[in-house]
Amino acid sequence: MFFLFNLAPGDPVRNLVGENASEEVVSNMRKKFDLDLPLGQRFLLYINDLAPISVHDATNDQSRVYFEPQDYTGFRLFGIGNSKSIYLKVPYLKRSFLSDKSVSSILGEVLPGTIVLAVVSIFFAMIIGMIMGIIAALERDSFYDRLMLFVSALGMAGPSFFVAIIVAWVGAVLWRDQIQLPYIFILMAVMMIALWLLPSSWLASKKITRKKLSIIIVSGSTLLWLVGWIFLEKGHMLRQGVLLPGTGLSMTGSLYSVDVWQGEYLDLKNMILPVITLMIRPLSVIVQLMRSSLLDVMQQDYIRTARAKGLSEFAVIMRHALRNALNPVVTAVSGWFASLLAGAIFVEFVFGWKGLGQQMFTAIENQDLPVVMGGVIVIATAFVLINILVDFIYGWIDPRIR
To answer: I need a labelling partner for 28 at 20 to 30 A (CA). Which of 3, 182, 193, 224 fits?
Structure first.
């Protein structure tokens, strides 16, 4: 990332000071940010700042490796040579070219917003996805099973930037105020519920399947509504419906909002649309993984043994099958959680959410290398830590791995 960023065209100093700045000002700024040095030397200086054990000069404040107490947190271990010393310190991510604030403080301000989005999104995706996957596995080859597979395939196919725009438009524009739900669709929902409550024996005696009846009900209701909408007057029953309350949500907003009278306050409703957007793809993956893994486990010998012992189906699934089917789901959840920390850039940009993604996007636009590098390092560290945590979770879930 360091080399790619520095090989890109453009001069961050010129962007910062403007085209009309004097050469002296430009030269001083370039020296301040070490941009006057060859690329290899700049990289070594960056690694020296990043490393917890590093070489610094404690006496000469003009040195490139001067131990500035304002920037570094640590202590001297031992000296080498006349002026250099080895220090043990907290990794230093340098200062922003744009604001001259430390990158650590910049990321510290925006990272909680991204972490909250990622945690809430993956939590709901995991709970809902596992429930849907379990039901799909238990109802294998049924209409519900095929519907879940179709919906999850759609969810995986949708790019996050496209889904974010659609969710923002529906939730904050189309449905912001009251919306009318036609009576015909309410009737369709009632008929569908009644259909699934009908005994299978009655359907068999009539030589008709639930799938065929479902298609007839859905297509017939939709066709009637379209006919009423196109050809009938507005007051006709086919065009009337129940007024549902609007969402009242906005297309932009962060975890904290500012009120003229209250000041800054926690505004959780701003999370709803970004969370829905972020959870769609991991939820789709979890549904399919949970279904396929549970179907595989349900064919194992120990499941037949548990049933032969007289255990209830609920006990067989919850105590024996589900726990052993969770390994691939845990893998997917861990990968997606780390990816949400890295991949929320589009979503945060669309919703104006103050988080790591939007901060990195702004830094890339302004060629603010230290902020971009700091964000990349934070994301990479998150991946490593989450993968280590997952290894422990595997052992907790599955005694064979332990």
So the answer is: 3
